[in-house]
């Protein structure tokens, strides 16, 4: 009986295609550059390739970055910063220049731009109404510009929605709704997305849910089997991600868009800057997240339907990020600021573990510390001053360098300032209190960093220099031409 195996196979194939969602889900990363010495784009693109990461979300449309991604086979989301929304809302012309300057030439090259994210969490509650009134107008203008440039079939417009844009006072997902102050705008956003068949980008943060909400336990946020589940009628929630996700599903359903595709555009766990922001918790969280995603069980309100994509927040630590929300904001990286692995996870089913960035260039092995052979009565004041520019977030309560007592913490502040100023001798002066050493002052998990030499900011400075050089050459040439 030869035909039987064949028909069995056919039945199995049909069964598989019914049970598994049709689209391929994938995992990407966010990459921001709010750092004093960002890792250069060439190193980052290499890091992504080494780790087989094929989806990337950016917060702007930096030309050097987009050029470095050319030919990489990485699908890119470019971002429009909140500060640009007002102008883009005000005229189609400005949207046309944005598309022309930031998109057209890369698309005609070999950079694969998949989405344009309009705004960076414009609905974040702490921004008030600074940005969101311009979001839909900006999106509509960009869409018009894309149509005009014949790019609307290649690139989709999305609007990243923050974790605090939807809520449920009782904590029950079935009572979810959008925040009342953005309710009207959300209706316009959803209509726009439905019309352009774009997915709903949402940032979900079990870390922040735990950090800000007494009702979420750490175990529940970390996907632990032992976590006490939350009940919502007959539905059972075993982790914070599912709970937030279904709160959003209810909000979308109430708004009339129950079936819109969802992309989780930011999700992660920080490794420093708050008591439970540790490497070991981040490892547990990320493993739990990847297992959850690969299991494809879906959530109680969307069983077996997974988000289209998820983007880990974030690729690298960034030492200049705004810390209004907390010191942890500078420590979300899957990798350290210089592209070194913090913990091991199997990022995709075809890779085994993560690998470090290669060919990273550092300044010399030199640190700035306090000279404790002289009168140090002014040291604390100097350290405080240094910290207004430097990154002292590792000194905050519960962080990796919190255990350094005075004057070790003064040295930490001095060194951070010195490294951020490219190890220039005068940046280790501090009124005679600073001293340069070649002995690494790091203790245990408290790392005294040495900054990156070939950094991206040098690269930018370099390209400005090239430009003025070209101007000079052209001027001289014009001058000679006249003579
Ligand atoms: C957005 O632009 C439109 C068209 O120029 C304008 O009518 C509207 O007032 C702008 N929105 C805001 C919030 O300023
Ligand atoms: C994108 O285009 C706008 C408008 O032309 C321009 O002002 C802006 O600098 C560009 N952004 C980047 C990151 O190049
Ligand atoms: C907290 O969670 C419990 C069950 O885990 C629930 O009964 C209660 O309503 C929740 N409260 C809030 C404010 O979310
Ligand atoms: C806004 O609120 C109204 C009344 O509560 C509700 O019917 C509507 O669905 C809400 N819209 C969104 C987008 O949540
Ligand atoms: C979380 O933080 C609390 C408060 O600092 C601490 O007692 C607890 O041990 C931490 N747990 C984990 C798993 O990090
Ligand atoms: C950080 O963000 C807050 C609120 O969003 C803002 O008021 C503040 O000016 C920002 N700080 C810096 C240094 O940009
Ligand atoms: C250190 O300097 C302060 C004034 O800046 C002075 O009051 C103090 O006596 C000095 N200490 C020593 C040990 O010299
Ligand atoms: C401490 O700072 C004050 C004011 O800048 C200065 O007058 C004083 O001499 C300093 N003390 C030491 C010991 O450096
Ligand atoms: C800080 O020191 C305390 C007590 O010596 C210890 O329990 C704790 O683990 C240390 N924390 C860090 C982050 O090293
Ligand atoms: C260093 O530690 C001392 C004493 O524990 C504290 O008063 C001071 O604020 C700390 N300085 C910094 C920059 O963290």
UniProtKB/TrEMBL annotation:
<dbReference type="GO" id="GO:0006952">
    <property type="term" value="P:defense response"/>
</dbReference>
<keyword id="KW-0611">Plant defense</keyword>
<protein>
    <recommendedName>
        <fullName>glucan endo-1,3-beta-D-glucosidase</fullName>
        <ecNumber>3.2.1.39</ecNumber>
    </recommendedName>
</protein>
<keyword id="KW-0378">Hydrolase</keyword>
<dbReference type="Pfam" id="PF07983">
    <property type="entry name" value="X8"/>
</dbReference>
<dbReference type="InterPro" id="IPR044965">
    <property type="entry name" value="Glyco_hydro_17_plant"/>
</dbReference>
<dbReference type="InterPro" id="IPR012946">
    <property type="entry name" value="X8"/>
</dbReference>
<keyword id="KW-0325">Glycoprotein</keyword>
<dbReference type="GO" id="GO:0042973">
    <property type="term" value="F:glucan endo-1,3-beta-D-glucosidase activity"/>
</dbReference>
<comment type="similarity">
    <text>Belongs to the glycosyl hydrolase 17 family.</text>
</comment>
<feature type="signal peptide">
    <location>
        <begin position="1"/>
        <end position="26"/>
    </location>
</feature>
<dbReference type="Pfam" id="PF00332">
    <property type="entry name" value="Glyco_hydro_17"/>
</dbReference>
<dbReference type="GO" id="GO:0005975">
    <property type="term" value="P:carbohydrate metabolic process"/>
</dbReference>
<keyword id="KW-0326">Glycosidase</keyword>
<keyword id="KW-0449">Lipoprotein</keyword>
<keyword id="KW-1003">Cell membrane</keyword>
<dbReference type="GO" id="GO:0098552">
    <property type="term" value="C:side of membrane"/>
</dbReference>
<feature type="domain" description="X8">
    <location>
        <begin position="366"/>
        <end position="448"/>
    </location>
</feature>
<dbReference type="InterPro" id="IPR000490">
    <property type="entry name" value="Glyco_hydro_17"/>
</dbReference>
<keyword id="KW-0472">Membrane</keyword>
<dbReference type="GO" id="GO:0005886">
    <property type="term" value="C:plasma membrane"/>
</dbReference>
<dbReference type="InterPro" id="IPR017853">
    <property type="entry name" value="GH"/>
</dbReference>
<keyword id="KW-1015">Disulfide bond</keyword>
<keyword id="KW-0336">GPI-anchor</keyword>
<keyword id="KW-0732">Signal</keyword>
């Amino acid at each position: 009986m030869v035909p039987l195996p064949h028909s069995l196979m056919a039945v199995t194939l049909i069964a598989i295609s019914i049970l598994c969602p049709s689209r391929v889900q994938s995992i990407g990363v966010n990459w921001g550059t709010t750092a004093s010495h960002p890792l250069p784009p060439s190193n980052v693109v290499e890091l992504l390739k080494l780790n087989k990461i094929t989806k990337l979300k950016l917060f702007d449309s930096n030309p050097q970055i987009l050029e470095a991604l050319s030919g990489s086979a990485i699908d890119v989301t470019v971002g429009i910063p909140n500060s640009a929304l007002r102008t883009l809302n005000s005229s189609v012309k400005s949207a046309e220049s944005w598309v022309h300057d930031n998109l057209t030439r890369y698309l005609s090259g070999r950079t694969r731009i998949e989405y344009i994210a309009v705004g960076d969490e414009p609905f974040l509650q702490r921004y008030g109404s600074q940005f969101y009134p311009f979001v839909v107008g900006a999106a509509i203008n960009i869409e018009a510009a894309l149509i005009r440039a014949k790019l609307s079939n290649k690139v989709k417009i999305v609007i990243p929605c923050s974790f605090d844009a939807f809520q449920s006072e009782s904590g029950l997902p079935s009572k979810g709704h959008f925040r009342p102050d953005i309710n009207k705008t959300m209706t316009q956003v959803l209509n726009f997305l439905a019309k352009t068949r774009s997915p709903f980008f949402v940032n979900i943060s079990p870390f922040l849910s735990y950090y800000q909400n007494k009702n979420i336990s750490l175990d529940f946020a970390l996907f632990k089997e032992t976590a006490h589940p939350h009940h919502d009628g007959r539905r059972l929630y075993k982790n914070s991600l599912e709970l937030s996700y279904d709160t959003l599903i209810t909000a979308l359903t109430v708004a009339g868009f129950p079936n819109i595709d969802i992309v989780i555009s930011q999700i992660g766990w920080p490794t420093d800057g708050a008591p439970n922001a540790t490497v070991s918790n981040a490892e547990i969280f990320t493993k739990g997240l990847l297992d959850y995603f690969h299991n494809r069980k879906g959530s109680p309100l969307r069983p077996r339907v997974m988000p289209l994509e998820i983007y880990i927040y974030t690729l690298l630590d960034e030492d200049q990020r705004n810390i209004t929300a907390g010191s942890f904001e500078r420590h979300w990286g899957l990798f350290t600021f210089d592209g070194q692995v913090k913990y091991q996870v199997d990022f995709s089913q075809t890779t085994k573990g993560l690998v470090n960035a290669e060919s990273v260039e550092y300044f010399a092995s030199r640190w700035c510390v306090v000279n404790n052979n002289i009168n140090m009565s002014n040291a604390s004041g100097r350290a405080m001053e240094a910290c207004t520019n430097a990154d002292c977030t590792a000194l905050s309560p519960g962080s990796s360098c919190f255990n350094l007592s005075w004057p070790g913490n003064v040295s930490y502040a001095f060194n951070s300032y010195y490294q951020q100023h490219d190890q220039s001798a005068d940046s280790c002066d501090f009124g005679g209190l600073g001293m340069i050493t070649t002995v690494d002052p790091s203790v245990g998990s408290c790392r005294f960093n040495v900054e990156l030499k070939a950094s991206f900011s040098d690269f930018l400075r370099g390209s400005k220099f090239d430009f003025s050089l070209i101007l000079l050459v052209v001027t001289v040439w014009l001058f000679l031409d006249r003579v």
